[in-house]
Design goal:
Blueprint: H1 2-19, E1 26-36, E2 42-44, E3 52-53, E4 57-67, H2 81-84, E5 90-92, E6 96-98, E7 112-117, E8 120-127, H3 129-134, E9 136-137
Parallel strand pairs: 1-8
Antiparallel strand pairs: 1-4, 2-3, 2-5, 5-6, 6-9, 7-8
Length: 139
């Protein structure tokens, strides 16, 4: 009986080693780059002070966390802007504004994804004249 119990315990332990997959988190730096290719100053509402971009310039924002060893663009379900604020309003020279909801800055497909090196990635969005032209005069 004791030998049978030892075998059962050994089998359970062996199967638990085989079935358990060790998960390791790695340090991941994600650099957001927002490029303003317009002649207008771009800013977000007051809840997202991080994003104020002068004409023809860039703004950088870095997030460090733990994650998988490798990231792909497909791993992002939403745009990085949603980590900065929810339902953000983009202002152009404080006169025209738009949420760009579902397009533009809120659509992850509009970001350029680049692997810089192991554990460091970049998501870049470029504001252009069409973003400005599609916006409305603020009320």
């Amino acid at each position: 009986m004791r030998q049978k119990l030892t075998w059962i315990i050994s089998l359970i332990f062996t199967f638990s080693l085989i079935s358990c997959e060790k998960t390791i988190d790695y340090k991941v730096n994600l650099n957001y780059v927002f490029v303003n290719n317009t002649k207008y100053k771009i800013s977000f509402d007051e809840r997202a002070n991080v994003l104020n971009i002068d004409p023809i310039s860039k703004s950088f924002y870095t997030v460090s966390s733990e994650g998988p060893k490798e990231l792909k663009k497909e791993d992002f379900k939403t745009s990085p802007v949603q980590t900065l604020c929810n339902n953000c309003v983009v202002f152009f020279n404080d006169s025209k504004c738009d949420t760009l909801k579902g397009r533009g800055i809120e659509n992850i497909d509009n970001y350029e994804f680049t692997k810089i090196k192991q554990g460091e990635y970049q998501l870049k969005y470029t504001f252009n004249e069409s973003d400005y032209l599609s916006s409305k005069f603020c009320k």
